[in-house]
Design brief:
By secondary structure, this protein is an alpha+beta fold. Strands 3, 25, 28, 29, 30 and 31 form a six-stranded mixed beta sheet that branches. Strands 4, 5, 6, 8, 9 and 10 form a six-stranded antiparallel beta sheet that branches. Strands 17, 18, 19, 22, 23 and 24 form a six-stranded mixed beta sheet that branches.
Length: 952
């Protein structure tokens, strides 16, 4: 409707202008033009004012005006500078070429305006630039120059080059006109052209273009710091000794050629030479410019490509390590700095073979927090049992830690969000989506290791209204108006009752008590947001009152990005319960592609490994947002209140020059780390995306010796595992871990590695999460003379166990599916402990259940239905066979095939009974299945002389 109104008003204005032009009625032409302008400005103002009110409500009024005025100023300045520059280039354009001149002016103003608008961040950073006290080793420039000044100079060069090309093109086109001969159209030389003035204008624009190109060659000196010619990123021997001095010569020659074009005697000398070579008199300017361009291009090609390529191929590459060693060293140093690896704490992990009960007793915090729940399995369970109604949805499961009941526990938590799109089509009305179903409700929370006897999670926070087993976990304000799935606008405190949560056959309603959203206090605001939301029904609706509040941009990542477009956001926001209120926490990064000598990050990863004797490879595509960056810092933590949408930014890396500049650009927008409330500070995490980027770089750049680095002698790759039936690289995972020198366990994120084409572990990296040690980055390597199992070898060990192999094959029949969770390698004191949960999911069930837990230390494997039983199996002995009195007949032992058939039959009965909700029959079938499995376990023990209590 608003689009139609806009088209009607603008069309009416255009009609008035069109009809008045023929009658030469200037007043009516002006009136029609004014109507068009007023219409455009009015609708632009509606959108502008809606945004301004949104920023005001959040308390970011200064941020709004700073960016708005900066963008407006840069658009105006860009347009004016472009107009001034093109005017100077075309000052001598013949007066008869008015249309061409005006077209050039309009194009230049448009280019300048768009250039100013698109590069506001570059200009603001240049204006507030700082030094970093770290200089590049080749040109001696402070890295702050590369962060803030070089991008600005690049953009200045780009607009000058574009305008110079436009000026040269217009100068040349001015020499021609359109010739018509009947139906034939052609271009021909203007008859009354002033040849002298036209040539002079063409030479002027050609000379200016060459001067601009010379300036570009000066900037190319600094861009050598990102060269890819040598063995590594950054300048190598050829860049420093051949290209760098050649660039200066090329720059000077190009500038001189441009200046010579301004000198008539030089131009005439060139022309006389060309005339002797047979050039025609009627193309003097074109031949002169062409010859100059040919000389410049030849010098560029010979000096910047042919000569360096020859040196690189015939001198450097045959002796590459000798020539490139100091430059490889520079690359290692600056790449480590660019990815914040220069502060890593490298250590050796002295692997010991002993694993005792005393170690378990001394590390109870770790063993009580070993994650047995796979996040995908838990997500399926929550969707089945805790979504309650079809309009609720759990988006993902997050891992965090809380202190409750006097213990520090690792938990998994998920938010129950509202998705009106899940309502039946007939219920997806304007009223329901905007006024009634406005918010999600509460969270589900469980420890990472606890199960009920039925294999379900032991939920510590569940149901609607939220029920909590511990006072520390109680949720006092469970409404979620802002989340990951909230992509529509809503209005609270309207005439229509706002749905809060279901209770039995009835619904409970609520009146919003927060300050989220913009208050629709008058008709003007109602009009503004009816237009901004593109929903004319909002303007016509009688439900909103003067106390109503409209909430939009509720999707938390879009909300944060709108406030801070200069930050890159982590891909995993997570929900936090802080003193009964729900908050979303997001990690934010500052990134750059301008850090000198640092290798750009590739979002494509290839992992080569062997599966038996077969060589295989995995190709993984990581987040494209990080493609090509060579500098990253996790400088900011962001919190979003799930109830009122309030957004807070906290600086966690004050040494990052990029965030220091942005803090100066938008003073007061971001807070210090010390200002974060303790209840939120307790939940900060080392981000998975950040550790992944650092880990993939460290896998190569842990090699500090240039020769070892050049030969890739010690290249690490991510460990692999069989996860959900597919071999895949291990993702970073959170654990409770106690450093060897520490007194207590802490929440940590770790990522294990193996050597290339091998499956033994070679080491791991860890990011510490707890506030006292937050941000510490540790790297542990194993002694090369010791064999430490990798996750894939643990998987192989499980596959080779005769009982487990048969049991998993039996389960993984028609009607069920075996799901193998993550293999977690957990450091315990000076040894490594492995855990893998195994789930079973029936076709008739919507979720998997835990069936086995496998634990392993060194080469010793144990398995049981619970973690504690499996752990005990590592210390126990195989049970002795009962003695039989002399002459007493042996008890009849069922044949193995009979036991397998009995187990299969019992399992089929169990699935059928469960699907038909005959739970007593299902329980009896499950008991029969257990008896059959125990019989099979006994058979295995007698036949293979292996422990039958899940031990190997």
């Amino acid at each position: 409707m608003f689009t139609l109104l806009f088209l009607v008003l603008a069309g009416l204005g255009a009609l008035i202008v069109f009809r008045s032009l023929g009658r030469k009625n200037r007043k009516r032409v002006a009136a029609g033009g004014a109507l068009i302008v007023i219409t455009v400005l009015f609708f632009l103002f509606l959108n502008f004012w809606g945004e301004k009110l949104w920023f005001d409500t959040l308390g970011y009024n200064d941020r709004f005006w700073t960016l708005f005025l900066a963008q407006t100023g840069f658009v105006a300045a860009g347009g004016l500078l472009a107009f001034g520059f093109i005017s100077g280039l075309l000052y001598a354009l013949p007066k008869g070429r008015k249309l061409l001149r005006n077209a050039a002016y309009a194009l230049a103003i448009l280019m300048g305006g768009l250039w100013g608008f698109a590069n506001w961040n570059v200009f603001l950073q240049f204006w507030h630039k700082i030094n970093t006290s770290l200089a590049d080793p080749i040109l001696g420039q402070d890295t702050g120059f590369y962060f803030f000044t070089l991008p600005f100079l690049d953009q200045v060069y780009s607009i000058l080059l574009s305008l110079s090309i436009v000026g040269l093109a217009v100068s040349y086109l001015a020499r021609f006109t359109v010739l018509r001969d009947g139906n034939n159209v052609s271009f021909g030389r203007v008859d009354d052209i002033d040849e002298h003035r036209s040539n002079r204008l063409l030479f002027l624009n050609g000379g200016i273009l060459l001067l601009v190109l010379a300036g570009g060659k000066y900037l190319d000196r600094f861009h050598l710091l990102y060269s890819e010619l040598g063995a590594v990123s950054g300048p190598g021997w050829t860049d420093v000794h051949i290209i760098l001095p050649t660039l200066m010569a090329v720059m000077i020659l190009t500038a001189l050629m441009g200046i010579f074009l301004f000198v008539p005697s030089f131009r005439n000398a060139i022309w006389r030479l060309l005339f002797r070579l047979g050039a025609g008199r009627d193309r003097q300017a074109e031949y002169t410019l062409g010859s100059v361009a040919a000389v410049v291009a030849a010098v560029w090609f010979i000096g910047l490509h042919l000569i360096p390529g020859t040196f690189q191929s015939f001198r450097v590459e045959p002796n590459e390590i000798s020539y490139e060693e100091p430059y490889i060293r520079n690359n290692i140093e600056f790449t480590r700095h660019g990815f914040n690896l220069h502060q890593i704490e490298d250590r050796e992990f002295p692997v010991e073979e002993s694993f005792t009960r005393e170690m378990v007793e001394n590390n109870q915090t770790i063993f009580k927090n070993i994650r047995l729940w796979d996040w995908r399995a838990l997500d399926a369970v929550l969707k089945q049992f805790q979504e309650i109604r079809l309009y609720y949805e759990f988006n993902n499961v997050d891992i965090d830690r809380y202190t409750f009941g006097g213990q520090y526990r690792q938990v998994m938590i998920s938010a129950r969000e509202m998705v009106p799109g899940n309502l039946p089509p007939e219920s997806q009305t304007f009223v329901n989506k905007v006024f009634k179903y406005t918010h999600g409700y509460g969270v589900a929370l469980t420890t990472v290791t606890e199960f009920t006897p039925e294999g379900l999670p032991n939920l510590l926070v569940k149901n609607i209204p939220p029920e909590s087993q511990y006072a520390e976990l109680a949720v006092s304000r469970p409404q979620i108006y802002y989340g990951e799935l909230t992509d529509n606008y809503v209005i609270t405190n309207s005439v229509e009752p706002e749905f809060d949560y279901p209770q039995g056959e009835e619904n409970q309603y609520v009146s919003y008590a927060g300050k989220g959203g913009v208050q629709l206090s008058n008709f003007w605001r109602k009009l503004v947001y009816a237009y901004k939301m593109g929903d004319f029904k909002l303007l016509l609706s009688s439900y909103p009152t003067s106390e109503s509040r409209i909430m939009f941009d509720r999707q938390i990542e879009k909300r944060v990005k709108k406030l801070a477009p200069f930050l890159d956001l982590d891909g995993d926001p997570y929900i936090v319960n802080a003193n009964g209120e729900l908050y979303w926490m997001l990690d934010a990064y500052t990134t750059s592609e301008y850090f000198p000598y640092s290798e750009p990050f590739s979002s494509r990863e290839e992992i080569q490994f062997k599966e038996g004797e077969q060589q295989r490879s995995l190709r993984i595509q990581h987040r494209r947002a990080f493609e090509g960056i060579n500098y990253i810092r996790n400088s900011v933590k962001v919190t979003v209140n799930a109830y009122d949408g309030n957004v807070s930014f906290y600086i966690f890396d004050e040494n990052d020059p990029l965030i220091r500049v942005w803090d100066e650009i938008f003073p007061g927008m971001m807070k210090k780390r010390e200002e974060m409330p303790p209840a939120l500070l307790a939940h900060i995490r080392y981000p998975v995306d950040y550790l992944m980027v650092q880990g993939l770089v460290y896998a190569k750049y842990h090699m500090g010796d240039p020769e070892v680095f050049y030969n890739q002698e010690d290249l690490w790759i991510r460990a692999t595992e069989k996860y959900y039936g597919e071999v895949q690289p291990v993702e970073p995972y959170y654990i409770m871990w106690q450093q060897p020198e520490a007194t207590e366990a802490e929440f940590s994120l770790i990522l294990p590695f193996t050597p290339k084409n091998r499956q033994v572990s070679i080491g791991w990296i860890a990011g510490l999460c707890d506030p006292d040690n937050y941000g510490r980055f540790l790297a542990y390597s194993f002694p090369k003379e010791k064999r430490v199992l990798g996750p894939q070898q643990v998987e192989t060990k499980i596959d080779q166990n005769s009982f487990l192999s048969g049991q998993l094959s039996l389960w993984d029949q028609r009607g069920s599916r075996v799901i193998r969770g993550n293999v977690l390698a957990i450091p315990i004191e000076n040894t490594i402990f492995y855990v893998e949960p195994i789930y079973l999911q029936a076709e008739t069930a919507a979720y998997p259940e835990l069936r086995l837990v496998c634990v392993m230390h060194d080469d010793k494997l144990s398995y049981a239905q619970t973690f504690q039983e499996a752990l005990e199996g590592l210390f126990g002995e195989a049970p002795a066979a009962p003695e039989r009195a002399e002459g007493q007949p042996a008890a009849a032992v069922p044949a193995t095939a009979d036991l397998i058939q009995q187990a299969q039959r019992a399992f089929d009965d169990y699935l059928e009974a469960t699907g038909q909700k005959r739970f007593e029959d299902a329980s009896q079938a499950l008991h029969e299945l257990e008896q059959a499995l125990e019989g099979l376990s006994g058979k295995e023990g007698s036949m293979n002389q292996e422990p039958t209590a899940g031990q190997q």
